[in-house]
């Protein structure tokens, strides 16, 4: 029943066919798991660490990045504008960043 609501947000028939195929694979699986559908996951901890290496390197670069005070203020300003935009699209009582 949960999956029926998911069909309403899928943009085209190709995506719908992919979802239907995945559901069939899950239903016909004798195991109670989804690893065949999660090919991006490693089978062992070491394999997963190897697959995560490019993302880990990018995060390391971002963490070590030197930011000027001017750029920091600009980023804070952009984030404040982002929060206002997000909250303006939400109903009262369901705001994420404000107390409304």
Strands, helices and their partners?
Blueprint: H1 2-7, H2 13-28, H3 45-64, H4 69-88
Give a short overview.
The chain is an all-alpha fold and 100 residues long. It is built from four helices and no strands. The longest helix has 20 residues, at 45-64.
List keywords for this structure.
single chain; 100 residues; mainly alpha; 0% strand; disordered N terminus
Describe the overall structure.
With about 100 residues, this protein is mainly α. It has a domain at about 1-30. About 60% of the residues lie in helices and about 0% in strands. It is built from 4 helices and no strands. The protein has helices spanning about 1-5, 15-30, 45-65, 70-90. The radius of gyration is 21 Å and the shape is flat. About 0% of the residues are buried.
């Amino acid at each position: 029943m949960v999956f029926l609501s998911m069909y309403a947000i899928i943009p085209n028939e190709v995506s719908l066919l992919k979802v239907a195929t995945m559901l069939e694979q899950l239903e016909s699986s004798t195991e109670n798991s989804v690893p065949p559908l999660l090919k991006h996951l490693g089978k062992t901890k070491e394999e997963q660490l190897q697959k995560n290496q490019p993302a880990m390197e990018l995060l390391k670069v971002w963490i070590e990045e030197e930011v000027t005070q001017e750029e920091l203020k600009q980023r804070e300003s952009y984030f404040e504008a982002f929060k206002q935009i997000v909250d303006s699209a939400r109903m009262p009582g369901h705001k994420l960043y404000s107390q409304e």
